[in-house]
Amino acid sequence: MALTFGDGPLASHPRETVNYRIDGPAHRLLFDPFPRRVRAVFGGATVLDTTNGMLLHESNLLPQLYLPRSDVRDDLLTPTDQHTHCPFKGEASYWSITVNGRTVDNALWSYLDPLPAAGWLRDHVALYWGSMDAWFDEDDEVVGHLRDPYHRVDVRSTRRHVRVVAGDEAVAESRRAVLLSETSLPNRFYLPADDVCSDLLELSGTHTVCPYKGTASYRSLRTPSGIITDAAWCYPEPLDGVRAIRGYLCFAAEGVQTWVDGVLQ
């Protein structure tokens, strides 16, 4: 994400404030080693186990893990008739995976004869993240996707005046917020629950997963003009590195504004 989204150097429209120009296509590929062991489990079996994983960073897409074909259980694979074409990589062939009577169709793909500009993809395969029951980075289970080594998240306490409003009503106000800065994303201000009008919030059934922060739980906001669905979220059990946002609430939704020192964010 850090390299391929927004104004990152591998995005289609990188930042203009540089003293260089990239001589190459607008859609860019970077094949980069992943520094740790990766395993994936399906149906109780380890489908892949590699210390030679590679991340394909591709303009406007999340990084995708590729690994040598030899690091996948070949006895679990069945070729299918599916093929797709990528104008930057070539034609992909697909395989289904079957373990203990369970099958996930077209879970794995490979560019058997990649385009010359992506020739390093030869003899490598990739799997859809959701096709596996679990993924492990070394011995830690990973949710969402592998962490991009070029992506970072910083959390800092701040005494700036943060005020959240919906319409004409203030729903939160604090000088004890924490500021979360995440690569390629706008700054987010998280407010302690004591500084939020909790009687205006109701629990939502929505949950999302971030590989850098954890599982978020959402709250909807009651206003005089109606309910704003999923107006705020919090991380009840955030991952290491962002523990400071535990239980804090962040607001971002249409109809909700966050002001910091009198400036609309």
User: Compute the gyration radius: what is it?
Assistant: 22 Å
The chain-level mean pLDDT equals: 95
Q: Give the uncertain stretches in residue-range form.
A: none
Structural class: mainly beta
CATH T-level topology of the largest domain: Metal Binding Protein, Guanine Nucleotide Exchange Factor, Chain A
Number of domains: 2
CATH homologous superfamily label of the largest domain: Domain of unknown function (DUF427)
Note the run of SSEs as H and E: EEEEEEEEEEEEEEEEEEEEEE
Number of E-state strands:
22
* Largest sheet strand order: 1-4-5-9-8-7-6
Shape: globular
- Under CATH at level 1, the class of the largest domain stands as Mainly Beta
Task: Summarize the biggest pleated sheet.
Answer: 7 strands, antiparallel
Walk me through the topology.
Layout: E1 29-33, E2 38-42, E3 45-50, E4 54-58, E5 64-68, E6 77-86, E7 90-99, E8 102-110, E9 124-127, E10 134-137, E11 140-142, E12 153-157, E13 162-166, E14 169-174, E15 178-182, E16 188-191, E17 201-210, E18 214-223, E19 226-234, E20 249-251, E21 256-260, E22 263-264
Antiparallel strand pairs: 1-4, 2-3, 2-10, 4-5, 5-9, 6-7, 7-8, 8-9, 10-11, 12-15, 13-14, 13-21, 15-16, 16-20, 17-18, 18-19, 19-20, 21-22
